[in-house]
Structures are given as C-alpha cells and as structure tokens.
Amino acid sequence: MPQLVLIRHGQSAWNLENRFTGWWDVAMTDKGEAEARAAGELMAAKGLDFDLTFTSLQTRAIKTLNIALEAMGRLWLPTEKHWRLNERHYGGLTGLDKAETAAKHGDAQVKIWRRSFDTPPPAQEAGSAYDLSGDRRYAGVPVPHAESLKDTIARVLPYWDGRIAPALKDGQRVLISAHGNSLRALVKHLSAIPDDEITGLEIPTGQPIVYELDAELNALDRYYLSER
To answer: pLDDT for 122-144, tens place per residue?
Structure first.
C-alpha cells in the first residue's frame, strides 16, 4: 500500500507576525524549528520511513524537511525541490499585516482575498519590494503576480501527476514538506473535497498528515499522526 505523509512547514516569522507571506522567503522561528524536530521524532517513533522526499523552493519548507529528516536519522534521503509546491502567491498583499489590511479594506474584502476559491488578491506590481521575477531560483519560471487557491491547485497538480504519483505507484514511500495552500491543493485532490469546503480546511504547522492510499492512489484514510 503506498505511503504518503504531508507536513506543513514549522512556524515562520511572518506566521507569528500575522503577515501575508506567499512566495517570499522568511525565517522560521525557534518554535517552528522545534515543531519540525518534533515532527521528525514523532514519525520515527511511529515507525515511518521514506524513500523519496519532495519540497518547494522556499527556505521554510526546505528547512522543515531537513530538520525532520535529521531527527529521523534520514538526512541522506533524496529530495526533489520544485516551485510548483510553493505557497500560494499573495500578490500585492505580500508582506502586509493581516489585521491592518482588514482595517483598511474591510473584513469582508480580506476574507474574499484569503478564503474564496477562485478570487485572487490584487496583483503584485513589477519592481515592488517583494517582486521575485529576478530571483535566480525562479529563472525560467512564470512567477505569478497573484494566485487564488484555484490557481494554486492548477499549478500543483501537474507536478503531482507527473512526478509524485508515479513515485508512489512505483512503491516509494513519500514525504512532502510544503505550505498551507499547496498542501490544501493535494488534500483537495486526494480526498475529493468540494470547492466550497476546501477553503475552510486548516492545516496546522509542523503536524504530519498521513494518507493511506490504495494501489490507484485513492484515499482510504487521512489523519494526523499525533492522533494515532
């Protein structure tokens, strides 16, 4: 039976400061690093092991993966990094305080930007402080100006179909360290969650999610490892 575990990166500085982060790189907090370490220790204690790991091109997800693997004694495992596993791009909201943004634009508008399925936030202006179009890691990548959850799903699933799903069907045990919205995309796909329900799904930081899948990668069960 294919084994898949998903983990959202440990708490970041902007999680703590309640700011929109998206594709921007921010440091993990001490709590975030502790969450990653605890996740690795829990996976080891529960007898989980992996053959292949995947993560985004964002430091907080990469570091979470490395800390967890080190705690498992598996830092040597092969890892593939890809921009398609990046967090949702928050466009012109990137770097803004969520509470201040709500005070300026109204709670209802910010809720639409944050939680609607197919309405993206305002586009990021070229040359703005958080413009990543010139970042070396994204050379040749169509860096979005903003993304809705629907947009995020549309760029995550081709990577799932083209690389991750074949690895699982080949019998490899897979761990994915990514972000709240890129993981929502995978959970929606695997668990067939409707559009109007997936936006309400909260994925906490540093908590491994275990999927039990059949040979065709249909989900038989989904649970947080800490609850079993």
So the answer is: 999 999 999 999 999 999 999 99
